[in-house]
Specification:
This is Toxin-antitoxin system HicB family antitoxin. The chain has 116 residues and is of the alpha+beta class. 32% of the residues lie in helices and 27% in strands. A hairpin with a 2-residue loop joins strand 5 (99-106) and strand 6. The relative contact order is 0.12.
């Protein structure tokens, strides 16, 4: 016997969505280039967005690091004793007195965003 409370929380899989008509055109064009329906293309984009893309993303993305981990002259940051190159989102240089979140990892290059 099914639980009526659980049954009332089951999702239909349908999501009404309003988007800009220009974005709609771009998405249809990209879906067509991949030989997919728009629904299938959007489902793929959503699924891809939920899963880490690579090993580095699984290991690093979301970690918060302190500005004291930076070697500012060499533009390196130490994570678990290993030095990585980095880019700062929306800034040119890192600050030694700030905290940063790792928002992307691509090989040995980390993209960081200052936490405010």
């Amino acid at each position: 016997m099914t639980n009526p409370i659980e049954e009332s929380h089951k999702k239909s899989g349908k999501i009404p969505l309003r988007i800009d008509p220009e974005l709609h055109e771009v998405l249809v064009t990209r879906a067509n280039k991949e030989g997919r329906s728009l629904n299938n293309y959007l489902t793929k984009l959503l699924e891809d967005g939920l899963q880490p893309k690579n090993f580095e993303d699984r290991q690093f993305v979301g970690q918060v690091i302190s500005g004291e981990n930076f070697d500012l002259p060499s533009r390196l940051v130490s994570i678990s004793g290993i030095y990585y190159r980095y880019l700062i989102d929306n800034a040119i240089t890192a600050k030694a007195d700030a905290q940063y979140a790792i928002i992307e990892a691509n090989g040995n290059i980390l993209t960081l965003r200052e936490l405010k």
